[in-house]
Amino acid sequence: MALETAPAPLEIRPQRGLSLFWRTFFFLALLLVGCTVAWLQTFRALEYEPRALQSAQQLASLVNLSRAALVHSDAIARVSLIKTLADVEDLRIAPREPNDTYHLYNLDSLSRNVSARLQMRLGSDTVVARQVNGVTGLWIGFTIDGDPYWLLTDPSRIGPVAGTTWLIWLGTAALLSLAGAALIARLLNHPLKKLSFAASRVREGDFSASQLNEAVATSEIREVNIGFNRMAQRLNKIEQDRAMMLAGISHDLRTPLARLRLETELSVADPQAREHMAADIEQVNAIIDKFLDYARPGHQQPQEVSLSQVVNAAVFAMGSDPNTRINVNIPSNTIVLGDAVELQRVFSNLLENAQRYGKNPETGITKIEIAAKAKDDCVLVKLRDHGQGVAPEVLEKLTQPFFRGDVSRSSATGTGLGLAIVDRAIARMGGRFALANSSTGGLAAHIKLVKAPG
Predict the structure, then answer these.
(1) Which partner from 156, 305, 352, 387 sits 20 to 30 angstroms from 124, CA to CA?
(2) Within a 13 Å sphere around the CA of 149, how many CA atoms are in the beta-carbon half?
(3) Residue 449: partners with Cβ closer than 8 Å, 6 or more residues away
(4) CA torsion, ordered 271, 272, 275, 277, to nearest 10 deg
(5) Which pTM does this prediction carry?
(6) Residue 188: which residues within 8 A CB-CB, separation 6 or more?
C-alpha cells in the first residue's frame, strides 16, 4: 500500500512572516539607525559653516602675513624668509606663471564655501586650486605689488573630519543601536514567549508545567501571569472534577448493570429476548468504557513500544470475521515512544470504526490496510478502509466529542467518542492525528508518532 496516497495535514506548516521578536527588533533598529544617520547628517551640515569660516580666516591670515613679510623684507632676507616658511610652516611660495595649469578647489560644498570666503577677504582675483602643474595641494593665488604668486599649503588645514573617523563613529553608533534594539525586543517578547509555551502546555493538558512567574518586576506582566496561573488552576480542577464524575458514574452504573445481567439470565425465559437484553447491557457497558477512555488523564511518561506488536494485538482482538480482511505492513523493528495500552486502544478504536463504517458498498466486504514507515525522527502510520468515505466538510469535525458523521458512516450505534479518544491519546504521546479521504476511495487515518531514539 502506498503510504503517501492522499496525505493528511499531519505537518504544522509554519506561517510565513517574521516573529514578534524580529518585527520589534527590526522596527527599533530601523528607528535607531535612522535617528543616528539623521543626527550625523545634521552634525556634518552644522559643522561645515563654522569650519569653512575658520579655515578661510586661517588661510587669509597666512596669505596676508606672507605677503606683508615679503613686501617689507629686502631681496637677501626674502630668500631666507621663503626657505624658513617652507621648512617650519610647510608653506611654499612660488611665482605664478601665465602658462600655469590648475584645477579649482571645488570638490564639495565645504571647499567651494572656503574658496568663496577667501575671494571675499583677499579680493576677487584670488584663485584657490587643488592642483597646479600636476602638483596636488592647496594652492592660493595672490598678488604682491601687482606680481602674481602661488602659496602652497597642506589641504588638511581646511579638510573635514576624515572619512574613516566618520565611519568609525557611525559604525559604533549603529552597533550600539542594534544591541539596544535587540535588548529591548527581548525584554518585550520574552514574557510573551513564556506565555505562549505555558498556553501550549495547557492545551496538551500538562497543567503542572504551565506555571508562570508571579514575582516579575513588571506590574502588567505580573498581573497577566497571575491571571493565567489562576485560569490554568481552574481548568485543572475542572478536568479533575470531570474525570472523577465520569469515574463515579461508571462505578454507580456498573453495579446495577451487573444485577440486571444476572436477573436477565435467571428470570427471562425467552432465549431471544434474553439475548437482546444482554446485548443492550453490553452496549451500555461499552459506552461507559468509552466515557472512561475519553476522560483518561492526559500526562504520561513515554516508553519504547513495538508498533508492530501493538497493531497485531489490536488486530487479534478483533476476532475472525469472514467479512473483514485486514492487511498489516509494518516492519518488526519499528519502535515508537508512547504507551502500549494507549496505542492498542487507539488502533482498536480505528479498526472498530473502519469495520463498522468502511464496508465496500458493492461487495459488503470490509478491507482494512495498515502500513507504517520511519521518516526523520518520527513514524508515519496509515490505516485506511475502502468504504464510501465522508464529505470533505465533515472531516475536521469527526474528532470532536459526540459528533456523528453522515448516515452512511453512522448506521451503527455508538457514543461518538471513538475518534475523539484516538485524537486525545495520540496528542498525549506527542504525536498528531488527521483524517483524509483516500484518492482511491475510503477513509484514511494518518498518525504521526515519535520515533524511539537509536
Answers:
(1) 156
(2) 19
(3) 307, 336, 337, 338, 378, 379, 381, 426, 429, 430, 431
(4) -110
(5) 0.49
(6) 24
Contacts 24+ apart (CB under 8 A), 50-55: 51/110, 51/158, 51/160, 52/110, 52/113, 52/114, 52/117, 52/158, 53/117, 55/114, 55/157, 55/158
What distance, in Å, lies between the first and last C-alpha atoms of the chain? 27
Question: What is d(CA 81, CA 87) in angstroms, rounded to the nearest whole number?
Answer: 10
CA distance 202 to 236: 9
Does residue 152 contact residue 94 with C-beta atoms inside 8 Å? yes
Give the span between the Cα atoms of 149 and 151, in whole angstroms: 7
How far apart, in whole angstroms, are the C-alpha atoms of residue 71 and residue 143? 11
Locate 98 and state its grid cell: 601665465
Q: Which residue has the cell 467518542?
A: 417
Q: Which range among 312-321, 355-364, 378-387, 432-441 has the greatest average pLDDT?
A: 378-387
Is residue 293 helix, strand or coil? Answer: helix
Angle at 336 between CA 334 and CA 337, to 5 degrees: 165
Alpha-carbon Rg of the chain, whole angstroms?
A: 45
pLDDT per position as a tens digit, 21-76: 777 778 877 887 788 777 777 776 676 677 777 778 888 888 888 778 777 777 67
Per-residue pLDDT at 86 exceeds 90? no
Pair 326, 360: CB distance under 8 Å: no
Torsion of CA 189, 194, 196, 198, to 10 degrees: -170
How far apart, in whole angstroms, are the C-alpha atoms of residue 402 and residue 290? 11
What gap in Å lies between CA 52 and CA 117, rounded to an integer? 8
The mean predicted confidence, pLDDT, of the chain is 78
pLDDT at 381: 94
